[in-house]
Design brief:
InterPro entries: Kinesin_motor_dom_sf, Myosin_head_motor_dom-like, MYSc_Myo18, P-loop_NTPase, SH3_Myo18a. This protein is α+β, with helices and mostly antiparallel strands. The strands form six sheets. The chain has an eight-stranded mixed beta sheet with strand order 6-7-20-8-15-11-12-19, sandwiched between helices.
Length: 1316
């Protein structure tokens, strides 16, 4: 519902609107990132205002260090209970190991567990259980954060997240995506803008995050990137590939709208129509491998794009498994075209059955096909395909349909092949722009057609072999060959039209390639037990090669890099590598043991089973008609000739102009390479495939698949590969009507099995080597930066004295000087010979965050673009860049020439060696022939001599009659001796036969015993290997936990040092406070002395005032007496009285001046009092803050002490490891040494914990001393305040007394004035 619809609905609703709020689970990780619980509201405000997640997730390596008492107690309870997963055929179950006092009399290799559901107690093998992870990690974003990495832990996380619609999960460097089987609202442009410009640590797991990571790596490293999606058929690879392309098109932007979202949707629609079909596993299965290349310019915008298609299953247009339909475009064209186009394509009546069309049985499929035709027509318009070009393709598609109706039969009384339905053949010929005779000649007599053409197209025919030498071809096979060729040429034409729309003349510098291929095909899982086809084997071979490439990049390349950089690292994978399977398919293996492990016979002679992906996916194959499928049909080569010789101008021009000048040896199998001007960056791939032309001349489909896959792998090896593992939750997840089957569980299924088929997902995890990948990623150092780049990038974080000045001669030494000043743990990095290696724990991301903060704080904005010099500089820089780019291209060309020269020399050397071997073999064969002839001649000479001797004896019979008896006796004696010798020889032969029979029986018995012993030893070795791998995995998990504990200890040490520094600072401040208090005490004493002096002066004044009052009273009495005797006094007495009055006025004025001075002193004392109160309050607040900080530090120190139980538990685990490894004979010695090393490390940890306890006690004592000093300071302050209050009270009393005296004096002055 759009925004306008919602507004209109609100307007019509009246006065009240009822809203039902439903949570969207899949958006939870986008709206709330980890680390927001720390209270930093800036990130949430940034997301609300800006709408971007940049710098929000980078706090992952910061939060989570401090834990509460409840969390610590819960973790302790979890460790004490020993939760485990019991693995069984149906999946895994939660259990808890019973303690030693609860389990008695257990045999070796057994343990007792209690199931959480049901409480049943079982005795199981140690190999059948795996350690469980804490509950708070059930829905973790990255499975490499799990303490115990095992299959059950990974399955539990995937199932928990999948139940909350969180289908994306990080598995170290790999992104795992489970097919949601229903639309989700996490693929929109708002989400794209949220992730735009983010780094990997800022983004939640999402397919957009993979695309953003590839784009960010391309921009920063200036190296080509690639995104490879692998998985089973129906797991959602094509959909996720389109999401990645959608993100790149929106986030990166395009130049002149070369690639927009509308064009991407149009390309996807056409590729689905022409290249997808429904299979037993997927309703929309891709039948080709697609490489989508996005080329970027120097500004990071898309300047061009291209699409290459490999291993297109073109034979599917005529040959398919029973019940599976043809490509979608046939049904969409037949169901959706309008009346005019239908009449033009002669499709008015479709009552006749076509050999190449499996009719759609369901009405909804026909309706869906009719609706899809409208999208196909819109896509053609969006991509700029002209109407005559589109009609040319529709004509070929309709002609294929009519050829299927026409059929092929043999004439009555002759062996000549012909069409079974001439009318349908006539319609097909009209659509192709040729005659029925020419079409028949091209299909049934290809050799005659070529000889009739002569040298008219000598250039094109020069590379075409004589098809008459191919032998007799069945008429139906010939028709199928023509149809295959027509559809392959049409598909090739469509790819060329798409690439024409995406091509441009802009300069590009880097590319991102997205690889999408058909998934692993196993039709038996969908109920089709007739066996997989040859095409399925080709698609499975592609998955094997991609998995082998993943194994090389993830394990082999990293191990080689560690060895090259002299970094000690040992790692052994727990599963077999895909190398043996790839080698078995590519070339014959001499060892029968390897073949027996990979291939086994099936029930029928024509069937066999191949164990793909390390034996996790056994696929049943049927070898029926494989020779026919493995050879290219010779008639298919003439399809291009028929189309280019068409009488229709649109067909002729289309297939002549879009076909490149090089003859397509791989036509129909590798399209999109030739004939496109936009594929300049695919030149390496073009070279890869043209070098294999000599091998493909044999017209072998298997060789074509191998050479194409070699080219794809070589292209990917030149890029940085980002892998996306798509996971199939159910066998039928790729089928469209899955919701009906999953609406409710069946009788034999529970709700958990409906959500996810755990055994199926377990096999996919094993085949993808996810457990080994996570272990390798966590134990190794996957992030690496060259020394020079690292120094230039992060040297700014070090202090000025640690930075290098001037030219750097030794980069390693410079980096060694910088590293101690960076906030990186020593265990988180290693220095190699030429680069720095970091663990995958966020160390490099933390440095990047610190660098960003540093740059953000030091940024100064200058109006550079307004300067004229800047414009001149940019022009000069552009010219320099062009020159540099030309130099780089020249260097690349020179490197390619040198590479070709090296390859040529190698080829010449191999050729000479082969020639020498050939000559040697010929000499041997000649020598053997000569020796045989010599022996034969010697036998003939011996026979001739014997014959001559017998003839001479006959001639001499007449002369030797006397000696006849002698020779006769000799002859008889010789005959008897010969018979005796013959009997003796027969007897000896019988004895020898009996002896040989006895020896044979004995050897057979010994062989049987040896084989049985070998099998037992092999089983025992496999069992020990499994135990060793499991122990190694647990040991590595324990080592990882120990490293985490070491990291936490180092952090606590840093905090302790920080605490000591703050304590020293607090002590210095306390000393300053003591000095201030002493100064205040001195001021207080001074004030007290001044107050005493004022009191004395006030007392004296009071006394003077009393005396003055007494005198005044006496004067008043005298005045009264004077008034009574006024007339009797003379002037002299009056003058004396006036003089006394003047003296009293002067004394009163002096007293008023003294009172003013006392009032000023009182005001100063009040200000001093206020200042003292403010300073005291400030001191109290600072001390309270220091005490709070000290209490927090003490709380963290107490937290560390609670790890003692964990150490005890870990010690028990080590003892268990020692007991297991002592039974492992000599193979476990290395593990014992490592356990001893861990024990030493544990002792060291205990000593460190003892030191921490001592430091904790010292900190407690310091805290107690500080509290006492604070109490003393507060008491002193209160005493000072009470003294000040007392002084002020006394001053107030003195002031009141003075005011009374002044009032009295003023009254007295008034009386005097009244008298005067």
């Amino acid at each position: 519902m759009s925004r306008d619809d919602v507004i209109e609905l609100i307007r019509r609703s009246g006065d009240e609107v009822t809203l039902t709020v439903r949570p969207v689970l899949e958006l939870s990780e986008l709206t709330m990132r980890p680390g927001w619980e720390t209270g930093d509201g800036g990130r949430e405000e940034n997301l609300r205002v800006v709408g971007n997640l940049a710098r929000t997730g980078s706090v992952n390596y910061k939060h989570g260090e401090g834990r509460t008492e409840e969390q610590l107690s819960a973790e302790k309870r979890w460790q004490d209970e020993e939760h485990m997963w019991l693995m069984h055929r149906g999946g895994f179950s939660a259990a808890r190991r019973l303690r030693e006092d609860e389990a008695t009399g257990l045999p070796e290799g057994k343990l007792t567990i209690r199931l959480q559901h049901g409480g049943e107690i079982l005795q199981v093998d140690v190999e059948d259980v795996e350690k469980a992870n804490p509950l708070q990690l059930d829905r973790t974003e990255d499975m490499s954060c799990l303490p115990n990495i095992n299959e059950s832990g990974l399955l539990h996380v995937l199932r928990q997240r999948y139940a909350c619609n969180l289908v994306h999960t990080y598995a170290g460097p790999v992104m795992c995506i489970v097919n949601p089987m229903h639309p989700l609202c996490i693929y929109s442009e708002k989400v794209i803008h949220m992730l735009k410009g983010c780094k990997q640590e800022d983004m939640p797991p999402h397919v957009y995050a993979v695309a953003q990571k590839a784009y960010h790596a391309m921009v920063t490293s200036h190296r080509d990137q690639s995104v490879v999606l692998v998985g089973r058929s129906g797991s959602g690879k094509t959909t996720n590939a389109r999401h990645a392309l959608h993100y790149l098109a929106v986030a990166a932007g395009t130049v002149n709208k070369i690639l927009t979202v509308e064009k991407l949707n149009a390309i996807a629609t056409l590729m689905e129509a022409f290249g997808n079909s429904r299979t037993a596993l997927n309703t929309n299965a891709s039948r080709f491998t697609q490489l989508s290349s996005l080329d970027f310019d120097a500004a990071g915008q898309i300047a061009a794009a291209s699409i290459q298609v490999y291993m297109f299953e073109k034979a599917r247009v005529v040959r398919r498994p029973e019940g599976e339909p043809n490509f979608h475009i046939f049904y969409q064209l037949l169901a959706g075209c309008d009346s005019d186009l239908r009449r033009e394509l002669h499709l008015e009546s479709m009552e006749e059955t076509s050999l190449f069309m499996t009719p759609l049985s369901r009405v909804e499929d026909k309706q869906r096909a009719a609706l899809s035709w409208g999208r196909v027509a819109s896509a053609v318009e969006i991509l700029g395909i002209q109407e005559n070009e589109a009609k040319a393709m529709w004509c070929v598609i309709a002609a294929i349909y009519h050829l299927g109706v026409a059929g092929a039969v043999t004439g009555m009384g002759s062996t000549k092949a012909q069409f079974g339905n001439p009318a349908a053949a006539q319609r097909a010929a009209l659509l192709l722009g040729t005659s029925v005779e020419a079409l028949s000649r091209a299909i049934f007599n290809p050799g005659q057609m070529l000889s009739a053409r002569g040298s008219f197209r000598g250039t094109l025919n020069r590379n075409k072999p004589d098809l008459s030498l191919e032998g007799a071809i069945n008429p139906l096979e010939a028709l199928e060959g023509m149809v295959i060729g027509l559809y392959a040429e049409t598909f090739n034409c469509l790819l060329s039209l798409i690439n024409r729309c995406l091509s441009s003349n802009y300069r590009t510098v880097n590319s991102i390639i997205v690889v999408d291929s058909p998934g692993l095909q196993n039709p038996a899982t969908a109920g089709r037990h007739s066996g997989a086809t040859f095409e399925d084997l080709c698609h499975n071979y592609v998955q094997e090669r991609l998995q082998y490439l993943f194994h090389e990049n993830t394990f082999t390349a990293q191990m080689d890099r560690y060895a090259q950089e002299d970094i000690p690292f040992a790692f052994e994978t727990s599963s077999s590598t895909p190398e043996s399977m790839v080698n078995m398919i590519d070339k014959p293996i001499q060892s029968p043991i390897v073949i027996d492990a990979l291939v086994e016979p099936a029930r029928l002679k024509s069937q066999f089973v191949v164990h793909h992906l390390a034996g996790t996916s056994p696929v049943l194959y049927s070898a029926t008609n494989w020779l026919k499928a493995a050879r290219e049909n010779p008639v298919s080569r003439l399809a291009s000739t028929v189309l280019q010789d068409s009488q229709k101008e649109n067909i002729c021009n289309l297939f002549l102009t879009l076909r490149g000048p090089v003859p397509s040896v791989l036509s129909g199998s590798c399209v999109g390479i030739e004939g496109s001007t936009s594929l300049r960056r695919a030149s390496s791939m073009r070279r890869t495939h043209t070098t294999g032309v000599a091998g493909t001349k044999r017209r072998s489909t298997a060789l074509q698949v191998k050479f194409q896959m070699d080219g794809i792998v070589e292209t990917l090896r030149r890029t940085s590969v980002h892998y996306v593992q798509c996971i199939l939750p159910q066998h039928n997840a790729g089928l469209c009507d899955l919701k009906a089957t999953l609406s409710s569980p069946t009788k034999n299924q529970n709700a958990a099995e409906v959500v996810m088929n755990v055994p199926l997902v377990r096999r996919q995890i094993r085949g993808a080597e996810l457990v080994d990948t996570l272990r390798m990623n966590r134990q190794g150092y996957p992030d690496h930066v060259p020394f020079a780049q690292f120094r230039r990038r992060f040297e700014m974080l070090a202090p000025a004295e640690a930075r290098t000045t001037g030219a750097v001669l030794d980069e390693r030494r410079a980096v060694e000087g910088v590293m101690p000043h960076l906030d990186v743990q020593q265990s988180a990095y290693r220095l190699g010979m030429s680069m720095v290696f970091f663990r995958a724990a966020g160390a490099l991301a933390q440095l990047e965050s610190h660098r960003d903060e540093k740059l953000r704080g030091d940024t100064v904005t200058w109006p550079v673009r307004e300067w004229c010099v800047w414009k001149v500089f940019t022009k000069w820089l552009a010219r320099c860049y062009d020159v540099h780019a030309q130099r780089e291209s020249l260097r690349a060309k020179e490197a390619e020439v040198e590479d070709l020269r090296t390859r040529l020399q190698k080829t010449e050397k191999e050729r000479s060696e082969l020639k020498t071997n050939h000559d040697r073999l010929e000499a041997r064969s000649r020598y053997s022939n000569v020796s045989k002839k010599t022996q034969k001649m010697e036998m003939e000479m011996l026979e001739l001599r014997m014959l001559r001797t017998s003839v001479m004896d006959e001639d001499d019979d007449d002369d030797d009659d006397g000696d006849d008896n002698i020779y006769k006796a000799r002859f008889e004696r010789a005959v008897r001796e010969a018979e005796i010798a013959k009997k003796r020889a027969e007897k000896e032969h019988e004895e020898e036969v009996e002896q040989m029979t006895a020896v044979k029986k004995m050897l057979e018995r010994k062989l049987g015993e040896t084989v049985q012993e070998y099998e037992e030893q092999q089983q025992q070795a496999q069992s020990w290997k499994r135990k060793t791998v499991k122990l190694q995995s647990e040991f590595e998990d324990f080592q990882h936990q120990m490293e985490q504990q070491t990291t936490r200890n180092s952090q606590l040490e840093r905090k302790q040092r920080k605490f000591d520094a703050e304590l020293h600072r607090a002590q210095e401040e306390l000393a300053e406070e003591v000095q201030k208090r002493e100064r205040l005490l001195r001021e207080k004493d001074e004030i007290a002395g001044e107050s005493y002096r004022l009191e004395q002066e006030t007392r004296l004044l009071k006394e003077d005032h009393g005396a003055a009052q007494e005198k005044l009273r006496q004067l008043q009495e005298e005045i009264e007496e004077f008034e009574r005797a006024a007339h009797s006094k003379d002037d002299k007495e009056l003058l004396r009285l006036r003089r006394e009055k003047h003296d009293l006025d002067k004394k009163q004025q002096d007293q008023e001046d003294e009172l003013d001075e006392q009032a000023g002193q009182i005001q100063q004392l009040q200000q001093a009092k206020l200042r003292l109160e403010m300073e005291n309050e400030k001191l109290r607040q600072s001390h309270s803050k220091e005490l709070d900080a000290h209490e927090e530090e003490m709380e963290e120190l107490r937290t560390t002490t609670s790890k003692r139980t964990t150490i005890c538990r870990l010690k028990e685990v080590i003892d268990h490891f020692q007991a297991e490894k002592e039974n492992g004979r000599g193979t476990e010695q290395k593990a014992q040494e490592e356990v001893k090393k861990l024990q030493r490390e544990l002792r060291e940890l205990k000593e460190e914990y003892a030191n921490l306890n001592r430091k904790e006690s010292e900190a407690s004592q310091r805290k107690h001393d500080l509290e006492l000093s604070m109490e003393t300071a507060e008491a002193t302050t209160e005493q000072l305040q009470s003294d000040l209050r007392l002084a002020f009270k006394r001053i107030d009393d003195l002031q009141n007394a003075l005011e009374d005296e002044i009032m009295t004096d003023s009254d007295l002055g008034g009386n005097d004035r009244w008298h005067s």
